[in-house]
């Protein structure tokens, strides 16, 4: 069975910027989704900010293996309830991939627990992406480095927690570097951040970038059953202790009472 | 100069539970603060939920090196603005130590990016705390294991991100285990979670526990200057690029414009 | 195509100890190999210390996806050349799983870079293994905890580097704990250590243990091509630099010269 | 009391290369040692390959807090017994800093458990070192980036395990990047790798580099007592179990017998 992916697009620049509309006539989400569907093992659909619940209803997330997120101009318009729902799905096992300016997306900041800030420059300069973790599944089929002739610069320090793995580091023509491919695990869900993808350049048509996206969907997919209550904190009664146990001393909670939150 | 610590106490059980009031006549925060002040290198004060802004004004946090947090019954009463302020101070370099039931404290969940859940049992059972990282600064002067005769049980799986270091793992009489001392870094701030400390037991009078608390304050202290805007995302103009750079291709932002958030 | 696994057995106790011979008439390696072959996706064979080159020729390792290692009494008899060969295969992408007393196996110590020591007691006590990383592929199909009624105790501190992930932590009847399932990556190869498996108990017949072994083989398998020279340090001539570059200043090496090792 | 550091120098190029001898008339080790001694909190001496036991006797290591290692042309001449002695001191708590071409030094490879390889080019090109971990103790007093006008290039992939922290990443004029400041912990000892320092350039006279070296010595210093037998694996007799325990089932070892290694 193929991996069920949603490509979530903010879909704002596509309507407001002629440059972006011309580059991505099917929307950036449409372009990314098409890249994923080139892989027979992935079945990708799209969702956008403007849909009810941003297209991310509980029912739909329950049937999604990996969510890919691109946002920029309208991070603040994403409803907090949807952010919590997305994070809960990740904790329960849904994979998630944040692209480029989604470093400031609400669910990314929520999952990281840090500001996720960086420095930036929009000059259409050359970016060269270096592999730092050979034969990593996210780098499948890629050379040790590849170039994007026109990209926005993102510079260190990048305000994220130490990653589980550093997969890519970028070189920029103007003199900066950036850890452009990083992995984390949050609960049962795998998280990948991938830097390239400024909206005024044709980055998501680049064959190497498209390969990374497909690889990342495979990597992020957790085939185990989704945990439906990933924040449950069950009480274990004394009578059900695994080793013989006699209650001693005072206690605060009465039998059957829930813990505080 | 000594390390400036605040011990933040929820201060609810002390007023409502006779058991807790008798055990901790100066409040749990008072007891913990006294433990810290036994170290000439630490200068500890207290703050409680009931104070204006929970005693954590911007001015006070700016003069705090390490914050120690105990909460349980009233996590939900902590104002979100104070939570963000605390997290921002951590990202800027303030150390923070979360104790026991503070696994569900808002700032801990915010910094971790995960549910921080666990299983639990209140039976006054024996806990034995094992050191897993020899000669770690947080374990200074401690034996390879020590016991608390009466504690609440917390059991795995503990819903936190993989730590930077696992310092302690607990054994429980009833058959469970728990990673009871874990470290992370979030921005410039160091974070330590330490499990023991149920309010109905005299845990914070235990000499080994008090030693851990003092050690952890020293470990969490970052003597570098506090970053005042830890979420800044500065634009680097093309004219100030470190390497000669000519702008190419289209762009979205005008000169001097801020980035989106 | 199924995953090609070798179960390497020291095969010493089987010949010298009646207890072990009776428990494992096909050898411990035979029992483990049979556990793996219950999975149609794995094709497991065995190799033992007593074979020429311990059964681990370059040709055979080149055709092996995952190596499973059990050793105890004869760690010192493993030839250093074979140890380097095994490690080189791991760096190139071969997965490797070290079981129980293989914490002191030469290739494990070589890959970890630490002493890999621990405390121990042979008393046939109860071990309870707790899952610390929900829905981790190595825990596929397992409950949150399972028991082995008779096992050797291993106690913390365990002298290994901080792992990439802690998957299991064990509780022991006599009062100790142990991080009993840990993962690392070394080069392109994935490494898993799994604690249970003392030779005088029927541990490798336990259904949960067998499930862990099969899961771990799947997890450790890197389907990417093996890197044949994982220690190559190529010179990049100035004339082949990716950006225009003019040589400046003095140098030590002449054109075409190899680097020092 | 000041931190006792040894700067270990291979001291080969100084004798064979006029360029190096002119740049570093006191030896590279002498220059680095002088940089450390500018800090009143550090007391640095030197040791070289050509001394008996390479100047690293057990007595001297026992009185050393942090060892700084530079080697290049003669890695193979370092005696294996000294390598094991150095690693054992690290496991017991001695800090260690490996500089530049010491990526191929025997003790570094031994502590990492990987090939530690990279790509390289000797062209005197510009290196710009970016800070990736703000307010990290190793970056104390440094700007967010600094430049070395002439350096050897080292390029990714760098064959080391995922670090505990990435502190610096380098940009090279010729188009490469490199994770040039990485930390690990091995046993009780802290390990730092710092990339710059090719022998034909005056790198160790650079004020920022010297600052990093001093900072790193402070960071690597573990003030806890040295563990003298960091590979001990003690047996815990049944009669000394922390919880009441009755021996059950067969065992392999007799009372008082040591474990296998």
CATH class of chain A: Alpha Beta
Instruction: Calculate Rg of chain A over CA atoms.
Output: 21 Å
Major protein interface: A-B, 71 and 71 residues
Structural class of chain A: alpha/beta
Q: Please name the CATH architecture of chain A.
A: 3-Layer(aba) Sandwich
Shape of chain A: elongated
β-sheet strand percentage of chain A = 25-35%
Give the domain tally of chain A.
1
Largest sheet of chain A: 9 strands, mixed
Report how far the terminal alpha carbons of chain A are from each other: 39 Å
Summed up, the helix count of chain A is 7
Sequence of secondary-structure elements of chain A: EHHHEHEHEHEEEEEH
How would you summarize the topology of this molecule?
The structure is a homotetramer of 261-residue chains.
Chain A lengths: L2 E7 L3 H4 L1 H6 L3 H11 L4 E7 L9 H5 L3 E5 L9 H13 L2 E5 L6 H7 L6 E13 L13 E11 L9 E8 L4 E10 L2 E6 L12 H14 L41
Parallel strand pairs in A: 1-2, 1-3, 3-4, 4-9
Antiparallel strand pairs in A: 5-6, 5-7, 7-8, 8-9
Description of the structure:
4 copies of one chain form a homotetramer. By secondary structure, chain A is an alpha/beta fold. Chain A has one domain: Class I glutamine amidotransferase (GATase) domain (Rossmann fold). Chain A contains 7 helices and 9 strands. Chain A has a 9-stranded mixed β-sheet. In chain A, strand 3, helix 5 and strand 4 form a beta-alpha-beta unit. In chain A, helix 5 packs across helix 6. Chain A is elongated. The two termini of chain A are 39 Å apart. At the C-D interface, helix 6, strand 5, strand 6 and strand 8 of C face helix 6, strand 5, strand 6 and strand 8 of D.
